[in-house]
Amino acid sequence: MELNDIVIEFIGTDNYELSPITDGLINTTYLLEDKDQGKKFILQKINNHVFKQPDVIVNNHLMVNEVLLSNNYQFQIIEPIPSLTHKLLVEDANGQPWRMLSFIENSVTFLTAPSLQTAFEAAKTFSYFLSVVNTEQLPALEDTLPNFLNFEKRVADYKSSLKNAAPHLREKAKTEIEITNQLLSLPDQWIEMEKNNQIPKRIIHADVKISNILFDQSHSPLAVIDLDTIMISTILYDFGTMIQSYTNTTPEDDGSAQNNFNPEMYEAVKKGFLFYLKEKLTSKESDNLDYAAQVAIYIQELRFLTDYLNGSVYYSTKYPEHNLDRTKNQLELLKGLREYLGV
């Protein structure tokens, strides 16, 4: 089944327009405009090398939407749209699963926070989303990415990639490897807290970068998007990755960035994150927010470096050193945060 067949399977007409959306690193995404109906949708091929059980993504999405709807959630909700044969996933000729989602008109996204106020509003929106979705009885979400937040495994994978890397890759990443190795014990406390059940299990979004909030033209939040990674884990990860995303004053792949950590943004995001969650967090969670921010940036850097040493097989890359530039950028961000925190 070719792309044209996939489109017709969902909307029943070949009178359409497809425009690629290139922000994502994992899935292949298009804006689909049905010219007959005058409607727009998101059409997406799920990367089933990363998400090995695409039906779990769809089921989790539906369960979360149900919780949001039953708790008078105030933002717009992205709905999965079934095909004309009532399937939420349609496979192409290569066995790749495609889905269609509702589209929110007149929305904008940002790769980096354009202002302190926008960052605060985005963090506050995620805070609200997390406070609503974490009801007393959590839905039975399945894990779409087994071991995604297994930091012990992330460190082991890095060590393995370092051992098995092509010599020229190891040489090019020499400085970054040295810094990474100096900080290898940074996630240890996190790993221990999880092992000893010192931090509660909660529903988390797990990909709370600012580009996963849709805003209107005046920069007011409209929706939380991309629920593919939603899972049950520690909410510390969402705070940490918010900091990793929002406080960076440069694009994530700017390898020559200097002083790319914005401390004012850090405080704005923390204030937004705590807006709806402050009373719901345990003291262990509250006390470890600054630490979580460091670990989240470090783990992301570790993942970029691991992929680079493995020959860039996981993240989409546009040139050979793309993952190395991402690594450099994250290390600079971590350096700025740690200096700010006085670590």
Enumerate the spans where pLDDT stays under 50 for 5 or more consecutive residues. none
Q: Beta-strand level of the residues, as a percent range? A: 5-15%
First-to-last CA distance: 55 Å
Tell me, what's the shape?
A: globular
How many whole angstroms does the radius of gyration measure?
A: 20 Å
Assign a percent range to the helix content. Answer: 40-55%
Q: Write the H/E string, N to C.
A: HEEEHEEEHHHHHEEEEHHHHH
What do the pLDDT scores average to?
95
The strand count comes to 10
Number of alpha- plus pi-helical segments? 12
User: What structural category arises from helix and sheet content?
Assistant: alpha+beta
**Main sheet: strands, sense, barrel:** 6 strands, antiparallel
Structure report:
The protein is built from twelve helices and ten strands. The chain is of the alpha+beta class and 343 residues long. Strands 1, 2, 3, 4, 5 and 6 form a six-stranded antiparallel beta sheet that branches. Strand 8 and strand 9 form a beta hairpin. 39% of the residues are buried.
Q: What does this entry show, briefly?
A:
It is built from twelve helices and ten strands. The chain is α+β, with helices and mostly antiparallel strands and 343 residues long. A hairpin with a 5-residue loop joins strand 8 and strand 9.
List the helices and strands and how they pair.
Layout: H1 3-11, E1 16-21, E2 28-34, E3 39-45, H2 54-70, E4 80-81, E5 90-91, E6 97-102, H3 116-133, H4 151-164, H5 167-172, H6 174-182, H7 188-195, E7 202-204, E8 213-215, E9 221-224, E10 231-233, H8 235-246, H9 263-277, H10 283-287, H11 289-309, H12 322-341
Antiparallel strand pairs: 1-2, 2-3, 3-6, 4-6, 5-6, 7-10, 8-9
